[in-house]
């Protein structure tokens, strides 16, 4: 089983950062993750959702590191 955020966590983080007008802190990222809506689906369904979006969401267990890496790329 896999946790899937609806909308994707990366989308929520981008939106929060734009709303805030400054880079998110680790505390901000954790707060967004902890307050986001998520569902639990089987691995096949999670993979299908990622494929339909065209990108992989960030891992909620490693969200700060993956968010920081993503921010370094954009």
Care to describe what's here?
The protein is mainly alpha-helical and 74 residues long. The chain contains 4 helices and 2 strands; from the N terminus they run βααβαα. The chain has helices at 9-20, 26-35, 43-53, 63-73, and strands spanning 2-5, 38-41. Strands 1-2 form a two-stranded antiparallel sheet. The protein is globular.
Distance separating the two termini: 31 Å
Helix content: 55-70%
- Main sheet overview: 2 strands, antiparallel
Which radius of gyration do the C-alpha atoms yield?
12 Å
The overall pLDDT, averaged over residues, is 94
Give the strand order, joined by hyphens, for the main sheet.
1-2
Q: SSE order in H/E notation?
A: EHHEHH
Derived structural class:
mainly alpha
The backbone outline, from C-alpha atoms, is globular
Number of helices: 4
Uncertain stretches of 5 or more adjacent residues = none
* Beta strand %: 5-15%
- How many beta-strand runs? 2
Give a quick precis of the structure.
This protein is mainly alpha-helical and 74 residues long. It has four helices and two strands; from the N terminus they run βααβαα. The mean pLDDT is 94.
